[in-house]
Amino acid sequence: MGRCSLQLLLLLLPLQASGASIPRSPALRAFGSLHLSSSPTSRPAVALNYSIRYFPQKIDHFGFYTDKTFKQRYLIADKYWKKDNGSILFYTGNEGDIVWFCNNTGFMWDVAEELKAMLVFAEHRYYGESLPFGDSSFKTVHLNFLTSEQALADFAELIRHLKQTIPGAENQPVIAVGGSYGGMLAAWLRMKYPHIVVGALAASAPIWQFDGLVPCGIFMEIVTTDFKESGPNCEKSIHRSWDAINQLATTGSGLQWLSKALHLCSPLTNSQDIQSLKDWISETWVNLAMVDYPYESNFLQPLPAWPMKVVCQHLRNPNVSDQNLVENIFQALNIYYNYSGQAKCLNISETATSSLGSLGWSYQSCTEMIMPFCTNGVDDMFEPHSWNLEELSRECFKQWGVRPRPSWITTLYGGRNISSHKNIIFSNGELDPWSGGGVTKDITDTLIAINIPQGAHHLDLRANNALDPQSVLLARSLEVKHMKEWIRDFHARPEKKQY
Hints:
- The chain is an alpha/beta fold and 499 residues long.
- 36% of the residues lie in helices and 12% in strands.
- It folds into two domains: 7-34 and 218-338, Four Helix Bundle (Hemerythrin (Met), subunit A), CATH 1.20.120.980; 45-203 and 418-491, Rossmann fold (3-Layer(aba) Sandwich).
């Protein structure tokens, strides 16, 4: 694709739709990646006990032309639920398979007994098994119903259904929980349907990464700071690597050498391959910043504890030859892609788990989810890329036949003007690049920001771990404290009925 805007640089996964490859983004693809890994000291996924159910949702909640429905998948666990003074924790599904999110949201499982909570995990339309038009769901003629508004309406209708059909649920407070895109949805569900949910925990939710609300370069600046603090000269080595790759790629023998030195599964043959290579490497650094967890994990890839520190051990000296620098880059990449030692080569078309729905997200990032990203190569360790809405628009129209609406999210959900709402916790890890677009300061007494100095992407939503830093333990205790207040206030009302 050549040099594209960072929105596309970050979104270039080679999937197929209508016979064409789809733009992708490291930041945006992993955006829905909300959850934990199966670390040795974390709760194993096989121990989770839930039932799988389906609910007939309207394909279109906002029109009256069609009454067609689809089966929305959701999961329920009620081992610790108490009908008299309990609660319902409702996970607002991200862009991916809901079972994966369920198995990887250990926080909800850890606090279920304390909050006497029923756990509900609702799958987002167009992801996992919740496909409104089955195998034809991603034909452009059917994609008009893939919006955050429709997804929020799905959640509201499902909650209403649960309250009407589960004995004892009618008089229960519902708290929305989500991380990343799911965290945004949790906050927006509370804003749009305050009579449905009494509060929300929005973890790593960049609700302000839109329409000029934050500088377009802040995301990659945080990534760069993470690498700078993870090892001496680490970000300098990465910054210099781009020129090294460019210089080595000027000849055919250089392309062959790069392919061999980086152990690539497919050889590099032209300048477009080189751009794809650099995009892939950039995405890898972004993903590492997001999953820099304090223990071994297997979220996007199997990784060691504090993986960025391990990676940066190979990038201590930027003042070596181009060939040596690229060889060091390979050693760093190999930590991310081959920590388990099973990979025979590195595939530049793969960066993260297949449980995320990259196909649906590439469409959403061409319609509502327009998040400006840019780099300048001065305040960050990347090659310069300006934010180019026109180029994004052309690519989106080419791939999906749609044009982006960059101002729609702020119009719909208020942007920074959300002080009239209440009972929302915004938690952000200070290591997480998405914190640049998140709420990191209290807005009111009930719109609360919890910052986690040693936290990466939604670390607080992961299961309790013996290696958790004190900062995340404190964050979780504060989150539970506020949830208990919401639950207590609800049960103290003379009329507790919710619809």
